[in-house]
Amino acid sequence: MEGKKFKLKNREEILLILGAQDEELRALEMALKVQLFVRHHPETETADLTLTGKPAAVEKAELRLRGMLEEFYKARLAPEEARPAEPAGLPEGALFKTSFGELIRPRGEAQKEYVDAIRSTDLVVGVGPAGTGKTFLAAVCALRALKAQEVKRIILTRPIVEAGEKLGYLPGDIAEKVHPYLRPLHDAFYTLLGPDNFRALRADEVIETVPLAFMRGRTLDNAFIILDEAQNTLPEQMKMFLTRMGPRSKVVVTGDVTQIDLQDKDRSGLVQIKGILKNVGAVKFVNFTAADVERHPLVKEILGAYEEWEAANGEKEAFDR
Asked: Which residue of 158, 177, 184, 302 pairs with 228 in a disulfide if CB–CB is 3.0 to 4.6 A?
């Protein structure tokens, strides 16, 4: 008799292999000619399978289970026109259909310009206030590229800027320490994919979230890379990030130059990038204003009030200098 462990990494994999209440367990044992023991982990929505039986049967059963999962993920990431759920494709003007059935379209001229730039250019810099859709639309375009098999993975990163509390004093390992900083990047993907799909793609490292400092030394090919909160990068960090770009990759940089958390605001990599790359024709810059905000209507009024106050006090956005 031989025993082998097989991990189911999320609720979707559990439902696929075992069924809602493990009702497929006995049928699966008969089909694969092995014994299956399952241990659920409700806190992480994962499960461990132990396969026991004759070595040849166990090996064959493991290959069968892995094949089922591969087919499942392959079908989910297939191009839109190849998916049976949407044989006619998306309606005209729609970019993406969320797991909840909502159609995502660009709103306004600035968002349309931004999406067109991302789809036609390998390096796009989107600058503007919060709520203008910079990160969300970059996530939409990243998922479109992934489903069309234009890239093999999505990488999300942002600089970690400590605000009064050092990371070393926060509880947990490094992943737990930086999680609150990276969580805002996850929100768009939760909305677009649903939490289960997002967790599954992260578990398979199809979607990776990583602090900017951990990008050094890597070459990222066949990837859609989003750098968020870029106003908090230093010039040397921005250079390091942009030079990670490998073959068949696409990069979107987003930020708001009115919300720089660096002590020396003139040292922002986002502030300097426009002047540095102004003669690089393959880079596209898209600027958003308070008029492009798509959050609660009050947000536009708040941003407008701040702009008036800054103008009255002689402050000017360095990015536009």
From this structure: 158
